[in-house]
Fold this sequence. Notes:
Blueprint: E1 6-8, E2 13-15, E3 18-20, H1 22-63, E4 70-72, E5 77-84, H2 97-121, H3 127-149, E6 154-162, E7 165-166, H4 172-198
Antiparallel strand pairs: 1-2, 2-3, 4-5, 5-6, 6-7
Amino acid sequence: MGSAGARRSGRGTFAGGRQLNARSVRQPKLDRRIKQSRALLFASVLAVCIGCDQATKLAATGYLEPASTVSLAADTVRFELAHNPGAFMSLGAELPGALRRFLFLGLVPLGLLLASGITLRFASSRTASLVALGLIAGGGVSNWLDRLAHNGSVTDFLSVGIGPVRTAIFNVADLAVVSGVLLLAIAPHYLRKRPQSAA
């Protein structure tokens, strides 16, 4: 005879009028594992970005003189130390000091925290998107830490160019942010086209 709380059938177990099967029992554990693995991936990319950026900034500060320039590959790559009070490519450098500090020291970390929370909240995020967001968050956090340590400025030391065409001076954190944005923009199109090409 069946019990009051649960009874068995050929397809699964009924508890309180609801069918339970092996899949429904395992699903919460699987969801937790997915979230944990994606959180670990995001945190790992973020930590690597911060570590690489801080190490290269420390090396640049130690080995480059403020007014010196080191050129490689016929001046395609140039190392020169600069302290940038603005954002990437010196955007916002001309803003008043109080507004600049409010934007870069106040709003930026809040935006990064919100983006990180949203990323980790949804376990369905694709691996490429998680890596991209980790790059963006890692670069942003590292530059924010640099601003805290250097009165609102970040340490830049690298530029690339050919002839008269040259980028502004940037750092590894800037490179991580740009790479993350490009990956975030390109990955969805690539993932949509790949099944068609495979077919």
